[in-house]
Amino acid sequence: MAEDIVDVLIVGAGASGAAVAYSLADTRMRILCLEQGDWMNSSEYPSTKMDWEARQFKEYNIDPNIRSNSADYPINNDESPISVVNFNGVGGSTILYGAHFPRLHPSDFKVKSLDGVADDWPVDYDLLEPYFAHNDRMMGVSGLAGDPAYPPKQPPLPPIPLGLVGETMARGYNQLGWHWWPSDSAIISEAYEGRDKCLNLGPCMSGCAQGAKSSTDINYWPAAIRAGVELKTRCRVREVTLNEQGMANGVIYYDEDGLEQFQRAEVVIMACNGVGTPRILLNSQSNLFPEGIANSTGLVGKNLMFHPVGFVQGLFDEDLQSHKGPQACCILSKQFYETDPQRDFVRGYNMQVSRGAGPVGTALQGYASGNIPWGSKHHAAFKKRFDHVAALAILCEDLPELHNQVTLDPELVDADGIPAPKINYQISENTQKMLKHGLARGEEVMRAAGATEVFSGGPVRPAGWHLLGTARMGNDPKTSVVNNWGRSHDVKNLFIVDGSIFVTAGGLNPTSTIQALSLYIADSIKKNLANLFD
Amino acid sequence: MTNNTVITSDNPLNNTQQKNLIALLDVLIPASDDELMPSAAGLDFIPYLHLHSAETIPILLQLLDHLEPQFCTLSPALRQPIVEQLSNTQAAQFRTIVMQVFACYYQTEAAQKGIGLEAGAPFPRGNDIEAGDLSLLDPVIAGDHGYRKA
């Protein structure tokens, strides 16, 4: 197909690329997706092996610089206290994510109007609600209706088990009178769409051998391919090319043999996450766009937002069986999610209760914190902690700042010679105050739940999962990269559907919202096919 | 843990280093008094490092070079202060190796059984956990936790 032309070319087969491919498939257009990684083989995931914990540290490490798979590209995090984590393959980072699946709140789309900071989005919760719901059904989301912290919604599957960890922490929240609710989780609690239910294996974040965790390689992609979408793996895109009229006309990529190829396309859709997408756009330089395609504003790569993460661990006398069950998903609290004028920061954070570590994780964390020594006291110290620890993550909302950005590293390149992304990022004073507040409240709820020892810290360095804001959407071409349905203001057949287009970050895991936006943009493309480039 | 892909010639240790390594492992994780937990002396540590952390083998060799040849002949009580000293003088290397020892140890069948687990890979066995009492949500539902209107 190298010299052939496709109607739609999607770059990246992760959360957003899969959703947009699936949705556009019913147009019967010729759709091709290029993915730099490969298909996963679930029988090779660490949880199928005795040494599953060690394998998490290396070939399934969340940090691409440590993992260094052939599909990965290096990332220069030297100028950032938070390092980028991701996965490159069919399914993208949904292969290794924790599958926490909350939606942004209605207020998250109106930050400027409500709190006088950052900007409002050009779309809102009500507009996206049908896409959230559709996405929940496609992914297979478990949860419980009735959460007062949200407008009404109905997860398609019942919640995953609370376990003793969830019950114990729930009692702590109740004692303080704070909000909590079972997490919306992209993990199927019952058999669903040909997939078997969760077995509570534990290590979700190194791939789910059971196929119960909803990564897009096992839901969206099979459906999209059945509907006629073509997916080519081991194809690493270097740049988006332009024709003389200033329209995108394809991409240059390296195939699995490292050979340079050109793929022509009528429409190009970027779906490479908030670092991968600006990297390619910035590398797509031409006379028309010397600073990178679709970058007349200079905003491509700017306003990078993470969710700085703090952690709180509590040690309990009771055996909580905490190594069992979905690692990251249990219950969460939105008690401090919204702005409160009484506090010294705006916006807020999500508190996520997670399960405890496995034996190796327990031993290593215990050694690092000075609680599990080597020597004759080792066994007693290990026994005291293993299965007796509950954990909390404090996920803080980041606000957009121009100096937090992705650029092209002047020296570092990937295996194909493409410049690597360089991250320049600082945690704002507002976020630091938020994190401090969150850690203190986390310790408070741990003690209320009965923890006898509490340990907290942050920001966690390898926690740059959520890569947002680097090609923001907006109605004004002077202050945004794409319009209110993901189309580049500059190049009218170039779309972006990943987390790059977030205007603000909210304070929670973004995959649900990324995919809802992707479905919404696909729907908008379908509705505007007759005058797509006007 | 046995690794069939590592052959004997992959062992970078001479006989003295091998004996000192076994003695060092026994100090780092001795058998428990109730004998439920084995000593780390029985670990196939070098094959483990080859498989999971080959870059730490030179660090281990450096560490072993700081032990006198007769270290392995000493009683456990006499080895203890020597290892204490090693942990202070070679702190970074020592921590690296201790972490690898812990990781290797808790992935063995004997250690997993000792801590009460069914040894083996999590999949396909899985785990049973409590569904949980959702009536705990009653005060949340009754409380004032509505979302912020936008």
Give a brief rundown of this model.
The complex is a heterodimer of chains A (534) and B (150). By secondary structure, chain A is an alpha/beta fold.
Describe it for me?
- The complex is a heterodimer of chains A (534) and B (150).
- With 534 residues, chain A is an alpha/beta fold.
- Chain A has one domain: 3-Layer(bba) Sandwich (FAD/NAD(P)-binding domain), CATH 3.50.50.
- Helices cover 24% and strands 17% of the residues of chain A.
- Chain A contains twelve helices and 16 strands.
- In chain A, the strands form three sheets. In chain A, strands 1, 2, 5, 6, 7, 8 and 16 form a seven-stranded mixed β-sheet that branches. In chain A, strands 4-10-11-12-9-15 form a six-stranded antiparallel β-sheet, with helices on one face.
- In chain A, strand 13 and strand 14 form a beta hairpin.
- The longest helix of chain A has 21 residues, at 429-449.
- In chain A, 61% of the residues are buried.
- The model of chain B has no long low-confidence stretch (mean pLDDT 93).
- Chain B has one domain (8-124).
- Helix content of chain B is 47%, strand content 0%.
- Chain B is elongated, with a radius of gyration of 22 Å.
- By secondary structure, chain B is an all-alpha fold.
- The interface between A and B is large, with 71 and 57 residues.
